[in-house]
Inverse folding.
């Protein structure tokens, strides 16, 4: 008698298992909710709302590119940044090519002026530090004007699509 009861119990359990499964016999998995949540939390996806952390809270870029600022920015970039950044490829740090299409102007300037705090607290910069295997972006102690000039230079990199 006990054996029959056990057998019945097993049959019921098997039936329940199969009725939850799809027709092809696979058991339905819970929806991959985490994936969409992860996407929402991806700091890179939310770049347009991220101005970074540092002295620059708001700047407006005029539509026209200021060529004398570009020249000044290029000069500073070439002497202070090319040890770690190359235009045409990822080096110790990322290539700045097209950066203005993936970061806000304020974020870029704050990254240049305040990299230590950025890589500790800002979600995008934290991620970049991981991608750079922990080598930190150096603070080159630039003035705000120099950082602004580099930003102007970076705007031309996007246009030229090198
Ligand atoms: C010692 C190497 C080094 C130097 C010098 C350096 N950087 Fe970086 N930079 C990095 C690394 C590495 C990262 C990625 C973040 C990290 O690991 O801290 C980075 C990230 C950046 C980013 C963010 C890139 C992105 O895709 O969002 C910008 C902008 C930047 N650097 C600009 C500059 C500028 C401008 C200079 C010169 C004034 C400069 N860097 C000098 C190493 C350097």
């Amino acid at each position: 008698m006990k054996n029959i009861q056990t057998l019945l119990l097993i049959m019921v359990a098997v039936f329940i298992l199969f009725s939850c499964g799809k027709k092809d016999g696979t058991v339905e998995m819970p929806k991959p909710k985490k994936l969409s949540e992860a996407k929402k939390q991806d700091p890179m996806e939310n770049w347009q709302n991220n101005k970074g952390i540092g002295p620059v809270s708001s700047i407006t870029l005029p539509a026209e590119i200021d060529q004398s600022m570009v020249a000044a920015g290029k000069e500073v970039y070439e002497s202070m940044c090319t040890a770690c950044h190359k235009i045409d490829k990822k080096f110790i740090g990322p290539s700045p090519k097209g950066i203005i299409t993936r970061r806000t102007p304020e974020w870029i300037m704050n990254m240049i002026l305040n990299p230590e705090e950025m890589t500790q607290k800002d979600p995008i910069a934290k991620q970049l530090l991981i991608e750079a295997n922990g080598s930190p972006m150096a603070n080159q102690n630039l003035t705000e004007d120099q950082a602004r000039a580099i930003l102007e230079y970076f705007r031309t990199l996007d246009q030229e699509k090198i």
Summary: The pocket of heme C is lined by residues 77, 80-81, 83-85, 92-94, 96, 99, 103, 108, 111-112, 115, 119, 128-129, 132, 135-138, 140, 142, 150 (CB under 6 Å). The mean pLDDT is 86. Residues 8 and 14 are 10 Å apart (CA to CA). The radius of gyration is 26 Å.
